[in-house]
Amino acid sequence: MKGRVVVLSHLDGREAAALMVDGRLEDLLVAAGPDGPPAPGAIFRGVVDRPVKGQGGVFLRLPDGLRAFLREAKGLRPGQPLLVQVTGHAEPGKAVPVTTRLLFKSRHAIVTPDAPGLNLSRRIRDEGERARLAEIAASAMAGSDHGLILRSAAEDAGDEEIAADIAAMRDLAAQVMGDASREPELLLDGPGPHLLAWRDWADPPPDEVAEGPGAFADHGVLEALGGLGRAEVALGGGATMWVEPTRALVAVDINTGADTTPAAGLKANLAAARELPRQLRLRGLGGQVAIDFAPMPKNDRRAVEGVLKAAFRADPVETALAGWTPLGHYELQRKRERLPLAGVLP
Fold first, then answer.
1. Domain span at residue 160?
2. Around Cβ 116, how many Cβ atoms within 10 Å?
3. What 8-state DSSP symbol labels residue 38?
4. 94 and 174 share a domain?
5. Tens digit of pLDDT at every position of the chain (346 positions)
6. Do both 240 and 330 map to the same domain?
7. In this structure, is residue 265 part of a structural domain?
C-alpha cells in the first residue's frame, strides 16, 4: 500500500509496532519483555552508591538489584536519593545509563522540570501558528515552575487536544517530582512500542493505523523482517553492505561487487550512506560504529560524508559523527535507544 501506515501488533508475544512507508519498512519497535531491562524513558528513584574512578560518574542502586550509571556526579554523596531517567539500553553486564534531566514526553508536549521556559519546535515556522501555540502553552503552564516544549506534531492540532496533553504531562511531572520517599523504586515505566508509535510517529500523521494479530503479515512487516536476520544488504548494481555487530562495535563493510572502478566505489558508498541509518534503526544497533567504505579517491570523501550527515539528520536516534580515521574508516557513535533485534526475536 502507498502512504504512511502504522502497524500495531505482537512478535513472539512481545508488543511491537512497525512504520511502513510506501510498502517499505522504515521503523520498528519491539518490547524487551517482562524480564528484560528497563525501557528508555523509565523514571526511578535511585540511591547513590559509589563513584566510578576514572570515569567521572557514580553508580546508583535501583530496585530489584539493578544498578545504574550516572555521569553527572558532582556534589552527590553516598546514600543520597535521586530521581533519574533511563536514557538507553545497557550493554550486556553493564549498568543502566541514566540522567537527572527528566523529560515527561507526550505526543504534543514535553514538560521539562529542570529547564524552565516555554519553547516551540523550530519546525513550526508559521508565525500565526506559533502565536496560537504560545498562548495555549502559557495558559496551560500558568503557575508551574516547570518548562515546556511544544513538539512539531502540535502544529494544526486542536486547542483542547494540545491543552489536555500539556495538562497530563504537567500533572504527571508534579506527581513524580513530588515523591519524597528515600528507597529505590520504579516511579514511571518507560513507554512501550504502541505508545511510542502514537507519540513519535504522528508527524506527519499516518494515512492508516492497522492493528491486530494478523496486521504484520497483512502489511508486509513479517516479510521485511526476514531480510533483517542477514548481515548482507543489497545496494543495487551488484554492490552490498554488510552490517555485523560485535561485542566492541558495529562493523560495516561496503563492497562494489564485480565492478571495481572508482565510479562504482563512489556509487556504492553514496547508496550505503543513505541506507545505513535505516539499517541501524531497524536492527536496533547502537554504540560505536566503524564503516569501511569501498575504495574511492580521497576527494570523493566530502560527498559521501555530506550524504551521510544528511541521512542521520533525518534519523530519530541521536548519533554523533566522529569522522575519518587514519586508516580510512569512518566512525560514529550512536545512542543505544533500542534493544538489538537479534536479541528480542527468536
1. 104-180
2. 12
3. P
4. no
5. 679 999 999 998 899 999 999 999 999 999 987 777 899 999 999 999 988 877 779 999 999 999 999 998 888 999 999 999 999 988 778 899 999 999 999 999 999 998 999 999 999 999 999 999 999 999 999 999 999 999 999 998 999 999 999 999 999 999 999 887 889 999 999 999 999 999 999 988 999 999 999 999 999 999 999 889 899 999 999 999 999 999 899 999 999 989 999 999 999 999 999 999 999 999 999 999 999 999 999 999 999 999 999 999 999 999 999 999 999 999 999 999 988 998 777 6
6. yes
7. yes
Q: Before 205, cis peptide (omega within 30)?
A: no
Cell of 5: 501506515
The pTM assigned to this predicted structure is 0.91
336 and 274 within one domain: yes
Cα of 11 vs its chain's centroid, Å: 20
Strand blocks (E) in 87-180? 96-99, 104-105, 109-112, 118-120, 147-150
Determine whether 252 is exposed, middle or buried from the number of CB atoms within 10 Å of its CB (0-12, 13-18, 19+). Answer: buried
**186 within a domain of the structure (yes/no):** no
Query: Same structural domain for residues 246 and 167?
Result: no
Burial label, 220 (beta-carbon count in 10 A; 0-12, 13-18, 19+) = middle
pLDDT in tens, 157-214: 999 999 999 999 999 999 999 887 889 999 999 999 999 999 999 988 999 999 999 9
- Bin 16: left if φ > 0, else alpha if -120 < ψ < 50, else beta: beta
Helical H runs in 33-158?
127-140
C-alpha cell at 242: 554488510
Could you give the CA distance from residue 253 to residue 276 in angstroms, rounded to a whole number? 11
Q: In this structure, is the dihedral angle defined by the CA atoms of residues 59, 60, 62 and 68, taken in order, positive or negative?
A: negative
What is the spatial distance between Cα 207 and Cα 3, in angstroms, rounded to a whole number? 6
- Cα angle 78, 81, 82 (rounded to 5 degrees) comes to 110
**Spatial distance between the Cα atoms of 258 and 204, rounded to a whole number of angstroms:** 41
